[in-house]
Design a protein that fits this description.
15 helices, Aspartate Aminotransferase, domain 2, 4-stranded antiparallel sheet, 2 domains, 7-stranded mixed sheet
């Protein structure tokens, strides 16, 4: 419904963040009379005009319920919706479209695995292994499942630098470990875990592996077949797509063996008052009217980043992270948390004597949008010995000028707060 070929550069051209910025209308806004410097993309990324136009086009010209009608508008909407699924499959290099399940977000996707695979295949005494630096969305569902079924939840440690080392991870595996649920990239520190090594060790121990890819899918190419992971989740709103749509990838055999997550329309094959049977994949896990426009918008967002090139986005963000790290080192009293060898463009920090919330509030008046708090990672904050951090997170549209504005705003905050 929308041609994302309007992206302003091709894969072999020099990376031009200023050109891409023009695709994001909100980046022209002002805040407190200052140009917006948006450094909160890890929480939610901004949307390019191509995605905004695509969602508007669905509602203005192409909306109807999918899968349920033989009229033209329904068939057109169904083609666009299922076309988005194909784009996600290609983006993750999954084998089949039926391995791609649409849902609301990564949180729902993780809960889906916990309440279907976990309930059916895990038994009292079995272990689930996570890490200390997980987002709450990859902790709480497992805690709930463990309490319900008598399972054991274990957390692999991280170093003072925020690194998850494979030897520490391997030491936590036992013959009772049945599921490993690990972040691919930490939302709080930017740490990129050794996903291939984690899968190899977990599979050798007989465990299935789920990756929370909410940050990783934004910052770098992801190939689920090469990783050989069993489940992978990410969320649309961090990938420059609409909010309200997320993705669960699962190996076909595992999804086939899992019971439905929700019951209702669309996920059934046949219903009587005595018994119901389930539809095939992926419909079995998509009960009710789905997020039609959002899924189509996510497909356009994938077109957008794919046209730029995920490798090129990753290289740009790595250069920017290094530049921002060097610039932040000039701020007296500033300490960066998370200095693992492999990091995404996420920088969390503190300034001696100033609360992170005060930092974020003051720099907001300079137009700089950063996040402050525990970043839905309270166990990690406990491990680091802090209650909160300020986080600057960068996207494909971020520039060195954004990093310079952040440093200038932090200097202003230091002077204002003494």
């Amino acid at each position: 419904m929308n041609d994302a070929a309007a992206v302003l550069s091709v894969a072999d051209a020099p990376y031009d963040a200023q050109a891409y910025r023009r695709d994001f209308p909100i980046l022209g806004e002002t805040v407190h009379g200052k140009p917006l410097v948006y450094l909160d993309s890890a929480a939610s990324a901004q949307k390019p005009r191509q995605v905004i136009d695509a969602v508007r086009d669905v509602y203005e010209h192409g909306y109807a319920n999918v899968h349920r009608g033989v009229h033209y508008m329904s068939e057109r909407a169904t083609d666009a919706y299922e076309g988005a699924r194909t784009k996600v499959r290609e983006f993750l290099n999954a084998r089949h479209d039926r391995e791609i399940i649409f849902n609301r977000n990564s949180t729902e996707a993780i809960n889906m695995v916990a309440q279907t695979h976990g309930r059916r295949f895990l038994a009292p005494g079995d272990e689930i292994l996570i890490s200390v630096m997980e987002h709450h969305s990859n902790i709480v569902p497992w805690q709930m499942l463990c309490e319900e079924k008598g399972l054991v939840l274990k957390a692999a440690p991280v170093t003072d630098d925020g690194e998850l080392r494979l030897d520490d991870f391997a030491a936590m595996l036992t013959d009772r470990t049945k599921l490993v649920a690990i972040t691919h990239t930490s939302n709080a520190l930017g740490t990129i875990t050794d996903a291939a090594g984690i899968v190899r060790l977990a599979h050798d121990a007989g465990a299935k592996v789920l990756f929370d890819g909410s940050q990783a899918a934004v910052h770098m190419p992801v190939d689920v077949q090469a990783l050989d992971c069993d489940f992978y989740v990410f969320t649309g709103h961090k990938l420059y797509g609409p909010s309200g749509v997320g993705v669960l990838y699962g190996k076909e055999a595992l999804l086939e063996a899992m019971p439905p997550f929700l019951g209702g329309g669309e996920m059934i094959s046949h219903v009587t008052l005595e018994k119901s049977t389930w539809a095939g994949l992926p419909n079995k896990f998509e009960a009710g009217t789905p997020m039609i426009a959002q899924a189509i918008g996510l497909g356009v967002a994938i077109d957008y980043v794919s046209a730029i090139g995920m490798e090129r986005i990753a290289a740009h963000e790595e250069d920017l992270r290094r530049y921002a790290t060097q610039r932040l080192a000039s701020v007296p009293g500033l300490r960066i948390y998370g200095t693992a060898p492999r990091k995404a463009a996420v920088i969390s920090f503190s300034i001696e004597g100033i609360h992170p919330h005060d930092i974020a509030t003051i720099i907001d008046h300079a137009g700089v949008a950063c996040r402050a708090g525990h970043h839905c990672a309270q166990p990690l904050m406990d491990r680091l010995g802090v209650t909160a951090l300020t986080r600057a997170s960068f996207g494909l549209y971020s520039t060195q000028s954004d990093a310079d504005c952040l440093v200038d705003a932090l200097e202003m905050a230091r002077e204002f707060l003494g």
